[in-house]
Amino acid sequence: MPNFHRFTIKAQEALQNAQEIAAKKNHGELKSLHLLAALLEDEQSLVIPVLERSGVDLSKLDEQIDVELDRIPPILANSPVASCIFPKSL
After folding, report:
1. In sequence order, which residues have a C-beta less than 8 Å from that of residue 29 and are 6 or more positions away?
2. pLDDT band per the 50, 70, 90 thresholds, residue 3
3. Following DSSP, what letter does each residue of 6-54 receive, concatenated?
4. Among 19, 44, 56, 68, which residue has the fewest nearby CB atoms (within 10 Å)?
């Protein structure tokens, strides 16, 4: 298990935001797609200018991320697995 306290504050925030995205969509696991979505939501993220300089159309990328996130099957909200992955304290 990774020691999250060794991550920078920004990395911890990005992971927390990614977990919140996964929880809102009732996804059973945290995926890199959730992290990418969280990084693109953060206006102070360094990811945005890097992608822009690389010629990425951010609006199209955002749309595609939403499509892919919607393809991930949700878990049942009251299942024991859901309460283990996303405790009420979030």
Report:
1. 22, 85
2. confident
3. GS-HHHHHHHHHHHHHHHHTTBSS--HHHHHHHHHH-TT-SHHHHHHHT
4. 44
